[in-house]
């Protein structure tokens, strides 16, 4: 299996709230489309410093994360950020990777949006069992 990428829209959730309260013009909401690595082996949404700066996501706290090579490093946790793919969306926080490291979409936001990787096409798709809305397992 190769690497899988998907076009994901990221939106500053705080800006959305300000727009709902008519304190920010809808055209001023910070958002961007990012071609993200879909990584089912990672848990979280990870963005890089450039994405964080463009979306102006506020710092929440420091978190430690273990990399694939076993090393443990400390990262900023920022958010909340709205994550959109096709007719699905979720809200989550993001770990900020240093420099221009490749952003990745991990298992938690994938599960929350009820999307999956098509086994033959190797691409991110909306769950065909629930094409019109996300459905979660509660048990």
Oligomerization: single chain
- Strand percent estimate: 35-45%
Quickly count the helices. Answer: 3
Helix percentage: 10-25%
How many domain regions?
Answer: 1
Give a verbal description of the structure.
The structure is a single chain. The chain is an alpha+beta fold and 139 residues long. The protein has one domain (5-126): Cathepsin D, subunit A, domain 1, CATH 2.40.70.10. It contains three helices and nine strands. Strand 5 and strand 6 form a beta hairpin. The longest helix is centred in the N-terminal third of the chain and has 8 residues, at 13-20. The two termini are 31 Å apart. The mean pLDDT is 95.
List the topology elements.
Blueprint: E1 5-12, H1 13-20, E2 31-38, E3 45-48, H2 49-55, E4 59-66, E5 72-85, E6 88-97, E7 104-105, H3 107-113, E8 115-117, E9 124-126
Parallel strand pairs: 2-7, 3-6
Antiparallel strand pairs: 1-2, 1-5, 3-7, 4-5, 5-6, 8-9
List keywords for this structure.
single chain, 139 residues, alpha+beta, Cathepsin D, subunit A, domain 1, six-stranded mixed β-barrel, two-stranded antiparallel ribbon, 3 helices, 16% helix, globular
In short:
The chain has 3 helices and 9 strands; from the N terminus they run βαββαββββαββ. It has 139 residues and is α+β, with helices and mostly antiparallel strands.
